[in-house]
Design brief:
The complex is a heterodimer of chains A (about 500) and B (about 325).
Chain A lengths: L1 H10 L2 H19 L5 H12 L4 H18 L1 H7 L11 H9 L3 H34 L4 H18 L4 H15 L2 E2 L6 E2 L13 H19 L2 H5 L11 H7 L2 H16 L5 H16 L5 H29 L5 H12 L8 H4 L1 H29 L7 H20 L3 H18 L5 H23 L11 H27 L8
Antiparallel strand pairs in A: 1-2
Helix pairs in contact in A: 1-18, 2-4, 2-18, 3-4, 3-16, 4-15, 4-16, 4-18, 5-6, 5-7, 6-7, 7-12, 7-13, 7-15, 7-18, 8-9, 8-14, 8-21, 8-22, 9-21, 10-19, 10-20, 13-14, 13-15, 14-15, 15-16, 19-20
Chain B lengths: L2 H8 L4 H21 L5 E5 L6 H17 L3 E5 L6 H9 L6 E5 L3 H5 L10 E17 L7 H10 L5 E3 L7 H12 L8 E3 L4 H9 L6 E4 H10 L2 E6 L14 H5 L6 E9 L4 H16 L1 H9 L4 E4 L1 H21 L3
Parallel strand pairs in B: 1-2, 1-3, 5-6
Antiparallel strand pairs in B: 3-9, 4-7, 4-8, 4-9, 4-10
Classes of the chains: A mainly alpha (about 500), B alpha/beta (about 325).
Chain lengths: ~500, ~325
């Protein structure tokens, strides 16, 4: 108890709270601009943290990360341009609310679920970190292979009703991911002798191109009269969003747990968590067209991506294993501040690490007021005439792409993928599966090939370890259950099947 | 007066010519000193933000700024496992405004990923060397590195060794060099590529591989949890922060120093006076106890080689890697 009180006194100082508020605004701004990611925001802030005490330094980083993941939803919902990859899964469905004038409402839901999901992630970090870290240590390449397979299955399920179109989009994503140096043998593939392609297509430029640039192209193809139309006015943010979010308790809890667990696995992060949680929601409710059904699907996913941020700190603090580039930077800062990650961090520096966790928890709770505030501010972009807004977004997209990759090739990438995204959308191919294909392609390939190398070419090894067998069975069940259920139903009621 | 220039000139030149050269170069120095650096300098790091190379570069940029009064900006280009970043250094103008952090690089050419060689760089100074540690899971039957090496020699195909990244990187090459010395048939050894040291350590704990080579700081957290053990550190003596890990020399008697180096380089053709200025600045930084403390706080092991020694070292590195790749089956 003394530890907690001591930790509280370290967090609730004017200085720490002030720094957290400033970082929150910074994180919201960065996350809301398509192309600028939480990682970039943190990397830019590291030199400043050198001059801070450990608690405010890390409080600043976690606040910023939590805000940036939520803020990715702002352009995703209002402009159909996800600010961070973690928002890509449900962008389409959420944008439909904006078209109906209810964008603020869905963002309100997102702020609440993000706060809940994020808090659950942090609580898991505070009380279950050693246990969950042990769980994560069971994952070798065999388990990651099945996780990647599950992820790809989820990608198909989020794509929409037409499985074949989702599959095409997913395969395109896998193809894009295979450009560059092969992760296993180091051979170069599909580079056509170009140095720029050696590193493959940068993920951030691709996602900016597919969503933001494609959206701009779509705007350009509209007739002049359509372009002049004001955008749909947004109904004010309901405080009802808060209550409504709570109505999906089970879904949010499911999303948060999924997010925490996936986040705790090094190498799997907020984006995969959001997809899997979204796919689970979709399965749960079926592809419902009602608002209620849509909220039931989106809520778990927005909870999951924020829960994953807390989850990713579990292996980082317990074993010093970074789950993603963001936690890699945080580990660097922890080391710099003399807080050596490891299980002893919970005993050696108990009050300090608890102060960090409390700040993390507080950051997630701050999501509700700051989130609501940012929604009010950000929706003003919808009042900007589109003729001004679209070119500005293009400029931000280009600068953002360049900033991430430090190369002009990234700017070319966003333009090429902008055209590709536009063409795909015009022909009713969903983009979400493609994004996850690009994220999971390298993981799938590497884990498959290295697993085969380990087992000397025996496929059985994929089913020999307990966790890997469980994941394999879940994957098989997800694949086989729907057709089997349909067969069974047709068998039971020998009536002509309903057409969908 | 730059030391290396002096060394080079002393070879076979008469004293009079040498004195004239000294006077000339001294006269030339102030003119250039006013000119370089007049604008911010870019340090290309061929690795992503947050990793080891990035960490050392960011520490270095802070001190270089103090030395020269100009901004030294770190540019991360980690695409293609470092190839893209190193190509950026190689292809930059050798005007002193693009520098780079170079680490073990000879394998890129051997693996057909790039065609840069030693001649494409102007070595300035080496500032860091991290010897490889050799880790096993806690329940491993091996208590000493000798037992492990003997077992691998007896049946090379039985064990898996993580590469902690691509299989041409510094850690797998360090292990392969040692195995080669031990008389192991390298063509039969099973090296498993992966996503860097952190992922490899995780895989070791999960039972995916038998051995993981990585720097000791990279294994630190897991060493302290008792999940893994380090059999040896590949250098002549124990590391300050890891007094329990025996050195390769005391365990096996082999005089080997294997691991990963980092140094500051420029593109080939950097004017000698700029190189000399940078080298002198690096020497001053290396001697600065604050820099030493910053490096050690992040777990980096400082090691000094001046421009000429670094060039020789790179030559040796290239030759070693070429010889090794001829024996390895990748």
């Amino acid at each position: 108890m003394d530890v907690i009180l001591d930790a509280l006194s370290q967090v609730f100082t004017l200085k720490v709270l002030g720094i957290m508020a400033a970082s929150a605004l910074y994180g919201l701004m960065v996350g809301a601009i398509p192309g600028l990611t939480a990682t970039l925001a943190v990397a830019l802030m590291v030199p400043i943290t050198f001059f801070m005490d450990p608690v405010p330094a890390i409080a600043a980083i976690v606040t910023m990360a939590a805000m940036a993941i939520f803020a990715g939803d702002l352009p995703a919902v209002l402009l159909r341009m996800p600010g961070t990859p973690a928002s890509a899964a449900y962008t389409d469905q959420a944008y439909r609310f904006t078209q109906a004038g209810r964008g603020e409402y869905i963002l309100g839901i997102s702020a609440c679920t993000s706060a809940i999901g994020g808090s659950i992630g942090v609580l898991a970090l505070m009380f279950g970190a050693p246990l969950l870290a042990r769980f994560a240590l069971n994952f070798s390449s065999f388990e990651y292979f099945w996780l990647a397979t599950l992820g790809l299955t989820a990608a198909i399920m989020v794509g929409g009703t037409q499985v074949s179109r989702s599959a095409v989009s997913l395969l395109l994503g896998l193809l894009v991911a295979s450009v560059g140096i092969d992760p296993v043998s180091g051979e170069t593939r599909f580079t056509f002798g170009s140095d720029a392609l050696l590193g493959g297509f940068g993920f951030i430029p691709v996602i900016i191109g597919l969503f933001a640039v494609a959206e701009i192209l779509r705007y350009c193809t509209r007739s002049v009269s359509e372009r002049e139309l004001p955008q749909v006015p947004q109904q004010p943010l309901y405080w009802r969003a808060l209550c409504d979010a709570l109505r999906h308790k089970l879904g949010i809890l499911r999303g948060s747990v999924t997010g925490t667990l996936i986040g705790a696995l090094p190498g799997a992060g907020a984006d995969i968590a959001a997809y899997i949680a979204y796919a689970m929601g979709r399965r749960h409710r079926g592809a419902t067209a009602t608002d209620e059904g849509a909220v039931a699907q989106i809520a778990p996913a927005t909870a999951a991506n924020n829960a994953a941020v807390g989850g990713s700190f579990i292996p980082a603090t317990v074993f010093g294993i970074p789950g993603d580039s963001l936690t890699a930077i945080v580990i660097g800062v922890l080391l710099m501040k003399g807080l050596n990650p490891g299980p002893t961090i919970f005993t050696d520096n108990a009050s300090m690490i608890n102060a960090v966790f409390l700040a993390f928890l507080l950051a997630n709770l701050m999501l509700i007021p700051f989130g609501f505030l940012s929604v009010r501010l950000f929706k003003q972009v919808l009042r900007i005439p589109q003729g001004l807004l679209m070119p500005s977004i293009l400029l931000f997209a280009m600068v953002g792409a360049y900033a991430v990759e430090n190369s002009l090739f990234a700017v070319v990438t966003i333009l090429v993928f902008g055209v590709l995204g536009f063409l795909l959308e015009e022909n009713d191919f969903p983009l979400a599966p493609m994004i996850l294909g690009i994220v999971l392609g390298p993981l799938l390939e590497e884990t498959f090939v290295t697993s085969m190398m380990r087992s000397n070419g025996s496929f059985l090894a994929f089913f020999e370890r307990p966790v890997s067998l469980t994941l394999a069975l879940i994957t098989a069940a997800v694949w086989l259950a729907p057709p089997l259920l349909r067969l069974w139903r047709e068998h039971r009621t020998p009536r002509p099947a309903l057409t969908d | 007066m730059p030391k290396t220039l002096k060394n080079r000139l002393s070879r076979g030149l008469r004293a009079g010519v040498r004195a004239a050269a000294v006077v000339l170069s001294l006269a030339a120095l102030p003119a250039f000193a006013a000119e370089w650096p007049t604008r911010p300098v870019t340090i290309v790091v061929p690795a992503g933000a947050g990793g080891g190379s990035d960490g050392t570069a960011r520490i270095l940029s802070k001190y270089l700024k103090e030395e020269f009064g100009q901004q030294f900006n770190v540019l991360n280009l980690g695409q293609g496992g470092g190839v893209v970043g190193i190509n950026r250094i190689v292809n930059a103008e050798p005007d002193g405004y693009t520098l780079g952090v170079l680490f073990n690089f000879a394998h890129y050419k051997e693996m057909g990923q790039a065609d840069f060689t030693l001649d494409d760089f102007t070595p300035i100074a080496q500032y860091n060397f991290d010897p490889a540690g050799f880790q096993v899971r806690d329940d491993s039957p091996f208590k000493t590195v000798n037992q492990a090496l003997d077992a691998i020699k007896a049946d090379p195909a039985k064990y898996t060794i993580a590469c902690a990244g691509g299989c041409g990187g510094s850690w797998p090459v360090a292990v392969a060099t040692l195995l080669d010395r031990w008389g192991v048939d390298l063509a039969k050894v099973r090296m498993i590529p992966g996503q860097g040291a952190a992922a490899a350590m995780q895989d070791l704990a999960a039972g995916g591989v038998d051995f993981v080579p990585s720097s000791l700081p990279e294994a630190d957290a897991m060493l302290r949890t008792g999940t893994v053990r380090s059999l040896a550190v590949f250098g002549p003596e124990r590391q300050e922060n890891f007094p329990d890990v025996p050195s390769l020399k005391e365990a096996t008697g082999l005089e080997l120093e294997l691991g990963s180096f980092r140094g500051l380089v420029a593109p080939a053709g950097l004017p000698d006076d700029i190189r000399a200025k940078l080298e002198a600045a690096m020497k001053a930084i290396y001697a600065n106890p604050e820099w030493q403390a910053d490096m050690k706080a992040r777990g980096f092991n400082p090691q000094w080689r001046d421009s000429e020694a670094f060039a020789d070292y790179l030559k040796q590195h290239t030759a070693d890697v070429q010889a090794l790749f001829a024996k390895m089956d990748l």
